[in-house]
Design brief:
Layout lengths: L2 H21 L14 H53 L6 H12 L9 H56 L6 H25 L1 H12 L3
Helix pairs in contact: 2-4, 4-5, 5-6
């Protein structure tokens, strides 16, 4: 971590920590009571909770739509490419087959004919198209793996954090409606998200799996 990053972390965390200790600190009380700080709760609920949730869901939907569009385009390109390749590779010999064979023999013997074979250009074009489709398929596979990882991370975050977001809002408006056990469970569920994240990364991506194994084995 660079010096600038360290300074940024200190600035981001120090200000709220100091303000919290000065304004809302109560000796021997470890729980922060939302109902006593409603203006702060409104700000946190909008900026820190629901707005990020909406943005993440919106971006995920856009990424999902883009991935689906690319998949359909790739399938369409493959379907278009396959018949032309079949025509090129499976065409039956025609009356000019003897002439083509003669030109091939002349080429082997060093007598290159002056006229070019049109099928060579067709084969070259089909080969280039096949290579391009293969590159597109490989790129799509890599992007799909990243999308799967993103799906795991986003849905685990929403499952662990959204319940607390709503409980947090309700407890600020009417604390009596939220049982203590519900608040405690949803509160600790947010920490559970940080616990499962490393396993989700490791499960969904080979690179993360290898890095995770090295960390577990102490091979830094």
């Amino acid at each position: 971590m660079s010096c600038a990053n360290r300074i940024a972390v200190v600035v981001v965390w120090l200000a709220p920590c100091v303000v919290d200790r000065i304004r809302w600190s109560e000796p021997n009380v470890c729980k922060w009571e939302p109902s006593k700080n409603r203006e702060f709760v409104i700000f946190v609920a909008i900026v820190g909770h629901h707005l990020p949730d909406v943005i993440m869901i919106f971006c995920f939907i856009r990424v999902f739509a883009a991935m689906r569009k690319r998949r359909l385009a790739l399938r369409s390109a493959q379907a278009t490419c396959t018949p032309s390749q079949s025509v090129t590779t499976s065409a039956q010999p025609d009356p000019g087959a003897k002439r083509v064979a003669k030109e091939w023999v002349d080429t082997i013997s060093g007598n290159i004919p002056s006229s070019s074979n049109p099928s060579t250009g067709m084969t070259s074009a089909a080969s280039e198209q096949h290579e391009r489709l293969k590159r597109d398929q490989d790129r799509y596979n890599q992007e799909r793996k990243a999308f799967v990882t993103l799906t795991y991370i986003i849905f685990s975050y929403l499952a662990c954090w959204v319940p607390f977001h709503f409980v947090f809002d309700i407890s600020a408006i009417d604390p009596a409606r939220v049982p203590e056990v519900i608040y405690t469970i949803t509160f600790w569920l947010t920490y559970f998200n940080s616990t499962v994240n490393p396993f989700l990364y490791a499960y969904s991506n080979k690179d993360f799996q290898n890095a995770f194994k090295r960390v577990i084995k102490g091979q830094f």
